Amino acid sequence: MVAEVLFVPGTTVVGVFGLIVSAAGIIYAFVSFDAGTAWWISGIAVILNLLAIVYSFRSGVWNKFSLKTTNQGRAFDGRTEGLQVGMPGKAISDLKPFGKASFGVEEKVYEVKSESGFIEVGKVITIIKIENNQILVK
After folding, report:
1. Where are the transmembrane segments (predicted)?
2. Is the pTM above the cut of 0.70?
């Protein structure tokens, strides 16, 4: 659980700043008051800091900062399976240069990029390159 806390952005900076402020207060107590009072102030500061740390871990406040979801990358997820270079299709939206097209018997819809710029809706197109899940057509 402690490792999770160290990776929450900003908590390390705030924690170090809090430690510095607490230490400065204790030093100020020793400079400004007699030794007995300064030790009392130091003891109270240490106890309050420890109570704050224990409370923060027991109350689950750190769970509010932790990441609960994961990023589902889509770099190579099989979107172009079943497509081949040279396969004919039909533009189902204007390609300027990106748009939608359908290919194959199922007429599944794909996002494509036109090699030559603008292609009107309804025109017959051909796949000329498939790379990194990007379909280039003419």
Report:
1. 7-31, 37-57
2. no
- CA-CA distance, 47 to 45, in Å (whole number)? 6
Q: Which residues pair with 98 in a beta bridge?
A: 113
Tokens 């204007």 identify what position? 94
Query: What is the CA angle 84-105-122, rounded to 5?
Result: 85
1-24 average pLDDT score: 69
For the record, the structure tokens of 110 come out as 């794909």
Residue 99 DSSP label: E
pLDDT tops 50 at residue 2: no
| pLDDT tens for each residue of 72-110 | 666 666 677 888 899 999 999 999 999 999 988 777 889
- 88-137 classified as CATH 3.40.50.410: no
Residues of the chain with CATH 2.40.50.140: 88-137
Evaluate whether 88 touches 137 at the Cβ level (below 8 Å): no
Which residue intervals of 7-108 are DSSP H helices?
A: 11-32, 35-58
